[in-house]
Specification:
Layout lengths: L15 H4 L1 H15 L4 H14 L3 H13 L4 H6 L12 H14 L8 H10 L2 H23 L10
Helix pairs in contact: 2-8, 3-4, 3-6, 3-8, 6-7, 6-8
């Protein structure tokens, strides 16, 4: 029988950083390398959208705070979950990044369609596209760490 986490739980299962410090530092290194050369606002939008799709409240809380600190508007933060329906809030480049984020995050649901990849490739040069992919890989890893270890939203431990 499997046990699911209840909303009343307020503690994590495991401190991943302490239990696996080398692995944790490796993810931090990948995260830092992935961000290089990317617009910080775009970085936060990608991290927010992936966290929404993965239902990671811990990361969503953290990245919406970071986005606000970086000057992101409340309107755009609220519209990120529905960016296709509110496309006018986002640039073409941001829309391409969000579409790629969704395809990579939900990769088991159909892979990364050629048209999604091509759209991103029109807005990002090869190096930027590689950085964007690395960023998407990284936030998906952070989401899985937070979810697997039952990180509690609002307890940012950075």
């Amino acid at each position: 029988m499997t046990t699911t986490r209840t909303p009343q739980q307020t503690t994590s299962r495991l401190n991943f950083a302490k239990a696996a410090p080398k692995a944790f530092r490796a993810v931090i290194g990948l995260d830092a390398a992935a961000r290089e050369g990317l617009d910080p606002a775009l970085v936060e939008l990608v991290q927010i959208r992936s966290s929404q799709l993965n239902h990671c409240a811990y990361c969503l809380h953290m990245h919406t705070i970071d986005a606000r600190k970086a000057g992101e508007s409340e309107e755009r933060l609220h519209m990120t979950a529905l960016w296709r329906e509110a496309a006018h809030f986002f640039t073409e480049k941001e829309q391409a990044a969000l579409a790629l984020t969704e395809s990579v995050t939900l990769i088991a649901e159909g892979g990364v369609p050629d048209e999604v990849y091509a759209r991103a490739a029109r807005h990002f040069d090869e190096r930027e596209l590689a950085q964007l992919l690395a960023l998407i890989f990284t936030i998906n890893t952070w989401n899985r760490i937070a979810l697997a270890t039952a990180k509690v939203a609002g307890t940012d431990e950075r």
